[in-house]
Design brief:
Largest sheet: 4 strands, parallel
CATH topology: Rossmann fold
Strand content: 15-25%
Mean pLDDT: 76
Number of strands: 4
Length: about 140
């Protein structure tokens, strides 16, 4: 009798439901009204492509900070197969391609439905938030 030892390989990726989940974000409470317009554009885009929306997540927080509990919940929820944002900086200011590759490696995906910039005020707030952090490292 021949006994072979099986070596653990990469984890199998299970097919995920294809219903998209939206992730809307603004940097500050003053721009909270933009969450609704982001969400509406997402709903319109899904309706046009015939997708049924699984859920929508709205969050107020900088795109350069990690403590975004709602986004982290989406990223760790294996039932979420597709995270839709508009534009890509709503998901993260930096590292979007790395995050997208990580999701795709798991059989999941990110999707950008609008490539134009949201406006400069959000980016300005993010830069203002990062400057003190960089100065403190001296």
């Amino acid at each position: 009798m021949i006994v072979t030892e099986s070596k653990p390989g990469p984890p199998e990726t299970q097919p995920h439901p294809t219903q998209p989940v939206s992730s809307a974000r603004v940097s500050a409470a003053e721009t909270k009204s933009k969450l609704e317009s982001q969400t509406q554009r997402f709903l319109d885009s899904c309706a046009a492509s015939g997708d049924q929306v699984a859920q929508g997540v709205k969050e107020i927080g900088s795109g350069i900070n990690d403590p975004r509990p709602k986004l982290l919940n989406l990223l760790t929820d294996d039932s979420v197969s597709r995270i839709v944002v508009e534009p890509q900086d709503r998901l993260t200011r930096f590292g979007f391609n790395s995050l997208d590759r990580w999701l795709r490696r798991q059989g999941r995906a990110s999707e950008v439905i609008h490539l134009a910039n949201q406006g400069k005020e959000d980016l300005i707030q993010d830069v203002v938030a990062i400057v003190p952090s960089c100065g403190a490292r001296r």
